[in-house]
């Protein structure tokens, strides 16, 4: 697998995880997060907070999903599978956005 394909798969994992949640507005800038399953009652909320806090809650789960993919599939990319690859360099490669 090439690096771009690898990162596209990681991004897809992130997107899928993020889209599995919904932010529901209540009053003002407040709301709550529910699973994107149709049942959006506040009693089923996974998190309550401001809209921004709810978005951060969701984004962190998306980032975690992407990093889980990276960790699980790192050996599939020869360029990244090198045992001496420093964490700093790995993060530089992952952070590249080249279209």
In a nutshell, what does this entry contain?
By secondary structure, the protein is α+β, with helices and mostly antiparallel strands. It has helices spanning 3-18, 51-73, 87-95, and strands at residues 21-25, 30-35, 47-50.
Keyphrases for this structure?
alpha+beta, 99 residues, 3 strands, 3-stranded antiparallel beta sheet
Structural class: alpha+beta
What general form does the structure show? elongated
The number of helical segments is 3
Elements, N to C (H/E) = HEEEHH
Q: Are there runs of 5+ residues with pLDDT below 50, and where?
A: none
Largest sheet features: 3 strands, antiparallel
- CA-CA gap between termini: 17 Å
Give the oligomer, counting copies of the same chain as homo and different chains as hetero. single chain
Number of domains: 1
Average pLDDT number:
91
**Strand fraction band?**
15-25%
| Spatial order of the strands forming the largest sheet | 1-2-3
Annotation, overall tally of beta strands: 3
Radius of gyration: 17 Å
Kindly describe this structure.
- There is one protein chain.
- By secondary structure, this protein is of the alpha+beta class.
- It has one domain.
- The protein contains 3 helices and 3 strands; from the N terminus they run H-E-E-E-H-H.
- It has helices at 3-18, 51-73, 87-95, and strands at 21-25, 30-35, 47-50.
- A 3-stranded antiparallel beta sheet has the order 1-2-3, with helices on one face.
- It is elongated.
- The chain starts with a helix and ends with a helix.
């Amino acid at each position: 697998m090439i690096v771009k394909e690898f990162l596209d798969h990681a991004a897809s994992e992130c997107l899928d995880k993020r889209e599995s949640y919904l932010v529901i507005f209540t009053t003002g800038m407040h709301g709550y997060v529910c699973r994107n399953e149709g049942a959006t009652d506040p009693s089923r909320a996974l998190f309550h907070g401001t809209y921004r806090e709810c978005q951060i809650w969701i984004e962190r789960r998306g980032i975690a999903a992407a990093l889980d993919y990276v960790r699980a599939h790192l050996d599939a990319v020869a360029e990244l599978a090198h045992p001496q690859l420093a964490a700093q360099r790995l993060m530089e490669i992952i952070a590249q956005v080249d279209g």
